DNA sequence: TAGATTGTTAATCGATTAACAATC
DNA sequence: TAGATTGTTAATCGATTAACAATC
């Protein structure tokens, strides 16, 4: 990744907010595929998401050449490519830590499995919860983390503990070998460089909404055509 | 907003990703306040969130002058200012539409109330759900939307219906007078300019995590110190 | 006063959009 | 071939960071 490779003149630096849009493209393409469409142009795909056609082409170009001039993109092929790029062409065994209201809520949500994120282990360190069986899974104590990460091949974890425990739990997860954290707590987590964190912060998003509504008279902000991308 | 006002030389254009950071500042300040701290500098606040000190000052400067050179910001005062700016200095009666797994999950989540977003009405149009009482609230049919919006003073709604109904429900909500939508479905919603939409897309965020973990060897991406902001 | 830190302007950096030759 | 649409370079736009005079 440091020096240019031989046949790979410029491996292209990892882009930035492009990945989030790739997910949107993937979903939109899946919708078009279900409708029986076979090809799509960058401008059609862009318009369906409120994005510029050049942006669609440029985003995809970071990862390769997937289109055909004059024709556009073959939907089925592009779906396959995007799944591979995003890493969702495989199952991701995932742990859920913290079984309060939010944790239980997420556990009941079926949307994860559709995207191949499988909640396979639950953790809590409340002795009243450890041993309970919820949605067919037994709650384990956080002390069992190291061996469970190994035995289940866990690489991702969702953190739904109270804010004040979040950093400690994150440290334990990282120490046990977890490589990616979905952080549902309102806390800035500090982790080593090789661990990824995505923050899902409902209060930030609600406050953003309050701000927008509060500061919109009749027509002003960017809300119009393009929904905020996460 | 077009021509400069008299005493208001440049009302400053509404900024962009600044609002999300304002929420982060607010929360961090609340934490510092609980610890008994009275003042804080832009560099201290920035560091606690992995942000640049100049960015903190510039973000705040969009909305006014809140600091004192040589001293920094008085925490209690800045909290008050930020709450007003964000519009979270009041209650926001909010509707929840769609009582599947995710909807029920959100309903049980106590974090909303803390930020003064009060779920006061539930809607569904499944006849088996209408009339049910969940968490002390009775599920209404979507047909009751217009009069309920008026009687409860609803301005925000969370959309937790299946993706294929999302646009139709959004249209109904907008027609009934809702001004802000928190969209939990994987759908790009098209709404009038004066309505705000914030998308909370768990699959996009999970896929982002999968991508990062998938493409991180030992030290590469930006995960290090700064958690992704939303 | 000397030290610290703001608010703000200018410089830098990155991301989006426009434009167009290449090509199916 | 003519029309459409790509991949990519150049132009534009916006956001972040550095620098510094003003000031508590």
Describe the structure in brief.
With 230 residues, chain A is of the alpha/beta class.
Oligomer: homodimer
- CATH topology title of the largest domain in chain A: Rossmann fold
Rg over alpha carbons of chain A = 21 Å
Strand order of the largest sheet of chain A: 6-7-5-4-8-9-10
Reported for the largest beta sheet of chain A, the result is: 7 strands, mixed
Order of helices and strands of chain A: HEHHEEHEHHEEEHEHEEH
CATH top level of the largest domain in chain A? Answer: Alpha Beta
Structural description of this entry:
The structure is a homodimer of 230-residue chains. With 230 residues, chain A is of the alpha/beta class. Chain A has two domains: 18-86, Winged helix-like DNA-binding domain superfamily/Winged helix DNA-binding domain (Arc Repressor Mutant, subunit A); 92-204, Rossmann fold. Chain A has helices spanning 18-34, 42-49, 53-61, 75-86, 101-108, 111-114, 145-152, 163-175, 202-214, and strands at residues 39-40, 67-68, 72-74, 92-97, 117-124, 133-134, 137-141, 156-159, 180-183, 196-199. In chain A, the strands form two sheets. The first copy, chain A, has a seven-stranded mixed β-sheet with strand order 6-7-5-4-8-9-10, with helices on both faces. The two termini of chain A are 29 Å apart. At the A-B interface, helix 1, helix 5, helix 6, strand 9 and strand 10 of A face helix 1, helix 5, helix 6, strand 9 and strand 10 of B. Chain A binds a DNA duplex (24 and 24 nucleotides) through residues 15-18, 41-43, 52-55, 57-58, 60-61, 65, 67-73.
């Amino acid at each position: 990744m440091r020096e240019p490779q031989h046949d790979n003149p410029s491996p292209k630096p990892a882009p930035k907010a492009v990945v989030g849009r790739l997910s949107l493209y993937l979903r939109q393409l899946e919708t078009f595929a279900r409708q029986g469409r076979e090809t799509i142009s960058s401008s059609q795909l862009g318009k369906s998401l409120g994005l510029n056609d050049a942006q669609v082409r440029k985003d995809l170009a970071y990862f390769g050449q997937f289109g055909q001039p004059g024709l556009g993109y073959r939907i089925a092929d592009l779906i396959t490519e995007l799944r591979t790029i995003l890493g969702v062409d495989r199952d991701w065994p995932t742990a859920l830590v913290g079984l309060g209201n939010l944790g239980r809520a997420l556990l009941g949500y079926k949307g994860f499995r559709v995207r191949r994120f499988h909640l396979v282990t639950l953790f809590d360190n409340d002795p009243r919860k450890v041993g309970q069986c919820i949605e067919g899974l037994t709650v384990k104590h956080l002390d069992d983390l190291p061996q469970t990460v190994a035995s289940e091949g866990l690489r991702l974890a969702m953190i739904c503990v109270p804010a004040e425990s979040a950093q400690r739990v994150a440290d334990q997860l990282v120490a046990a070998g977890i490589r990616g954290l979905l952080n549902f707590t309102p806390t800035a987590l500090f982790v080593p460089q090789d661990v990824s964190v995505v923050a899902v912060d409902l209060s930030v998003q609600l406050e953003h909404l309050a701000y927008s509504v509060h500061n919109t008279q009749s027509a002003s902000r960017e809300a119009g055509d393009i929904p905020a991308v996460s």
